[in-house]
Amino acid sequence: MTAPAPNRRATGFFVGFLAVALLVAGALSYFASPHPDGLDTVTLQGCQVVESDAGEHLEGTCIAQNATDHSLAASPLADYSVEGGEGTVGVAGVIGVLVTLVVAGGLFWVLRRRRPKDQH
Amino acid sequence: MVGDTVLAMHMSDGLVNGPTAGAFGLIAVLGLVLAGVRARSDLDDRTAPMAGLVTAFVFAVQMINFPILPGASGHLLGGALVAILVGPWVGSLCIAIVLCVQALLFADGGLTALGTNIVNMALVGVFVGYAVAVALRPLARRSRAGLVATAFVAAFVNTVVASLAFVLEYAIGGAGGASLGTVFTLMIGLHVLIGIGEGVITAATVGAVASVRPDLVHLLRGTAPPLQLRRAGDTGVTESRATEGNPS
């Protein structure tokens, strides 16, 4: 990348911003509420989650009974864990932040308007 | 593990029927293509890295479910947050990228439901949040407290309206299991509470960025024109903007 180096203050801010994102995903994520979010609360309305040896299933009548399993449910990072391991949410979170940064940062860097001096 | 079902934050496959999912998928694609075209004018060497970081930050904060009622939680959607920091066009791409990463890498949010999720959060949430923020921009420009209040209100409204987008999709092609009235009432009720959390997170984040780098807050741009040379051959619109910024 041939961008003129942003001033030190800008770099410091960006580094700080990334550090906060990594801390949130890597550490604060362990303290997230384990309860269903607003949408899931609505789709589960009318059902009870019953746990048995075969896993969880829903009893009653609710929207969530129509939900199908995720096609990528077997992926290594499924459900914000690493290979389903307990206590790996922070690791999964850090991976997610870095992947998101690379994908988004890359796309926006490509889409950006070049300054005139970059074009010659 | 009980936790397995819990960190799923977005619509799964099967909640709306195929045609509805397909139609919203098409709307999502069209909206994002337009956003991609329009985003370019908001992206430069300084704002592109900012937009990348904002996207990563939204991914991180969406992981943090906060309690709203016994047995129920909420999490950031991020529409007003990205709209205020990087503008609505770039912002809708930010949220769409987060949703794609979550669906493809973390199996959160169904693949056929990606269109509905993108419409709800990346298009409706972002543009509603932006509209509210722009309406309150005079307040936001007046003081830091005004900016923080603007961020709170915009985030609150974006959360409630985004939740109504789901109700609309359920009304059009819902798979059933609950009456539309129940879905409507519960979605609004819960998202009013979640909207308060969304408002607090958005206000805190925007306030923090503005205290360090107000020039990186898209909503405030124009108050203190950044010292930036624009190419003379650019479009008329850009030229007139540059002229406004350089009284000479």
Kindly state the percentage of residues in helix of chain B: 55-70%
Number of helices of chain A: 3
Oligomeric nature of the chains = heterodimer
Radius of gyration of chain A: 21 Å
Total strands of chain A: the figure is 2
Pfam families (chain A): PDGLE (PF13190)
Protein name (chain A): PDGLE domain-containing protein
Keywords (chain A): Cell membrane, Membrane, Transmembrane, Transmembrane helix
InterPro entries (chain A): PDGLE_dom
Structure description:
The complex is a heterodimer of chains A (120) and B (248). Chain A has a two-stranded antiparallel sheet. In chain A, a hairpin with a 2-residue loop joins strand 1 (47-52) and strand 2. Chain A has three helices and two strands; from the N terminus they run H-H-E-E-H. Among the domains of chain A are: 39-67, no CATH class; 77-113. By secondary structure, chain A is of the alpha+beta class. The model of chain A has no long low-confidence stretch (mean pLDDT 89). Chain B is mainly alpha-helical and 248 residues long. Chain B has one domain (16-225): Arp2/3 complex 21 kDa subunit ARPC3, CATH 1.10.1760.20. Helices cover 68% and strands 3% of the residues of chain B. Chain B has ten helices and two strands, in the order αααββααααααα. Chain B has helices at 3-6, 18-39, 47-62, 79-86, 88-105, 114-135, 137-142, 144-173, 180-212, 236-245, and strands spanning 66-69, 72-74. In chain B, helix 4 (79-86) packs across helix 5, helix 4 packs parallel to helix 9 (180-212) and helix 8 (144-173) packs antiparallel against helix 9. Chain B is globular and about 50 Å long. Mean pLDDT of chain B is 90; it is low at 1-5 and 235-248. The interface between A and B is large, with 76 and 85 residues.
